[in-house]
Amino acid sequence: MERYTLIKEVGDGTFGSVWRAINKKTGEVVAIKKMKKKYFSWDECVNLREVKSLRKMNHPNIVKLKEVIRENDILYFVFEYMECNLYQLMKDRQKLFSEAEVRNWCFQVFQGLSYMHQCGYFHRDLKPENLLVTKALIKIADFGLVREVNSLPPYTEYVSTRWYRAPEVLLQSCLYSSKVDMWAMGAIMAELFTLRPLFPGASEADEIYKICSVIGSPTEDSWADGLHLASDINYQFPQFPGVNLSALIPSASDDAISLITALCSWDPSKRPSAAEALQHPFFQSCYYVPPSLRSRPAVARTPPSARTRVPDQQQCAKKHTATLHNSKSSSNFSSPKLHASADSGVQRKLDMLNQDARKNDNKSIKSSGNQQKYRPPGKSNSISTNRVRATRVVSDASEKLANMTLGPPRKPTVGLRPTAPMKSGVQWIGESGNVYLRHAQPIQSGRVYTRKVVG
């Protein structure tokens, strides 16, 4: 103990007193618990439940035991220092705590309890004095009455402060479990909302009386085992219908009232565990959900109306018999005369007209930019206008060619000279509006030529 300087006594209890001290070497402020009982061997010290449990547990909501010192048969526990306890915050407070503050503290305590119960211990002495607070952080302390969950009964009949003692303990049951901690938390949670104890009994009998007046007397349906415990000690419950907790705790929300009601159930088996309490809707806002996992409300995004787009497409299909595109494409004309005609002269004339239309289309595209941008149907733009014009020229030409009469080839009239061939091996001669084509050289047999209408 020569490494610590005691500054001030901050608490005194049944089993020891607590001092605020400072480490001479590091300057760290600590809390030192000085036990009133004498310990004459080191084995006796390390076998204490408080020492064994705190050495085993490590949780941010459970006070940390830094060191155990035995000096002159006096045992000292060195803990991390916390500013105050929950009772000190409530006793002189005039304004009620907000529900957010109550939720934050209770959420942390339930996390510590859940960890503690999973480690195989239950506290048995939960009360505001044993909940230490530093700003928004709260920790469970004073494990002097801690007990193993799997330890064999009988258990001590007197545990915890009377106002937070579970009814099965008040009825002297030696078979109780970690659910006594859950009852205490229900009473503490209600006190945080009202700054007044929920069951302020002056004795064990008065404590049961206060409980019955608030939550109603137990019945065979609500707690049959409790009636048997009462008959074993010749105790008869006072008859009360109970009151609505929302009337006693008007500042609490419906979710808070629901959780307190569940925690303060007569039957221990009907009380939620600490892990189950953490899943209660009252603590829903305490859980962080990444933005990627948050549910987003469905936003109705209306695509381009089908009633606008489909008729436009159908109208274009009716007006145009061919579609012009930058890449290779083909167009089928449905003129019966053209299908019936086997001569290739009509096809060559159509090729020439399509080439002219494509040249005009390419010029308009180059003038508007190298890359064509999408524009919704129905909106006027220069590219679509040029395409419509070019397509109409092709359509009109196809109708004229369909009405033409093809006859046998005639010799060219004197004075007319043939123009440059359109393609290799083919020459054409025009006379008075009629078009005739002939092959400059024979086509080799065995080769198949496909006809394409380039649009």
Automatic annotation (TrEMBL):
<protein>
    <recommendedName>
        <fullName>cyclin-dependent kinase</fullName>
        <ecNumber>2.7.11.22</ecNumber>
    </recommendedName>
</protein>
<keyword id="KW-0418">Kinase</keyword>
<feature type="domain" description="Protein kinase">
    <location>
        <begin position="4"/>
        <end position="283"/>
    </location>
</feature>
<dbReference type="InterPro" id="IPR000719">
    <property type="entry name" value="Prot_kinase_dom"/>
</dbReference>
<dbReference type="InterPro" id="IPR017441">
    <property type="entry name" value="Protein_kinase_ATP_BS"/>
</dbReference>
<feature type="compositionally biased region" description="Polar residues">
    <location>
        <begin position="365"/>
        <end position="388"/>
    </location>
</feature>
<comment type="similarity">
    <text>Belongs to the protein kinase superfamily. CMGC Ser/Thr protein kinase family. CDC2/CDKX subfamily.</text>
</comment>
<dbReference type="InterPro" id="IPR011009">
    <property type="entry name" value="Kinase-like_dom_sf"/>
</dbReference>
<keyword id="KW-0067">ATP-binding</keyword>
<feature type="region of interest" description="Disordered">
    <location>
        <begin position="297"/>
        <end position="389"/>
    </location>
</feature>
<keyword id="KW-0547">Nucleotide-binding</keyword>
<feature type="compositionally biased region" description="Low complexity">
    <location>
        <begin position="326"/>
        <end position="335"/>
    </location>
</feature>
<feature type="compositionally biased region" description="Basic and acidic residues">
    <location>
        <begin position="346"/>
        <end position="364"/>
    </location>
</feature>
<dbReference type="GO" id="GO:0005524">
    <property type="term" value="F:ATP binding"/>
</dbReference>
<comment type="similarity">
    <text>Belongs to the protein kinase superfamily. CMGC Ser/Thr protein kinase family. MAP kinase subfamily.</text>
</comment>
<dbReference type="InterPro" id="IPR008271">
    <property type="entry name" value="Ser/Thr_kinase_AS"/>
</dbReference>
<keyword id="KW-0723">Serine/threonine-protein kinase</keyword>
<dbReference type="GO" id="GO:0004707">
    <property type="term" value="F:MAP kinase activity"/>
</dbReference>
<dbReference type="Pfam" id="PF00069">
    <property type="entry name" value="Pkinase"/>
</dbReference>
<feature type="binding site">
    <location>
        <position position="34"/>
    </location>
    <ligand>
        <name>ATP</name>
    </ligand>
</feature>
<keyword id="KW-0597">Phosphoprotein</keyword>
<dbReference type="GO" id="GO:0004693">
    <property type="term" value="F:cyclin-dependent protein serine/threonine kinase activity"/>
</dbReference>
<dbReference type="InterPro" id="IPR050117">
    <property type="entry name" value="MAPK"/>
</dbReference>
<keyword id="KW-0808">Transferase</keyword>
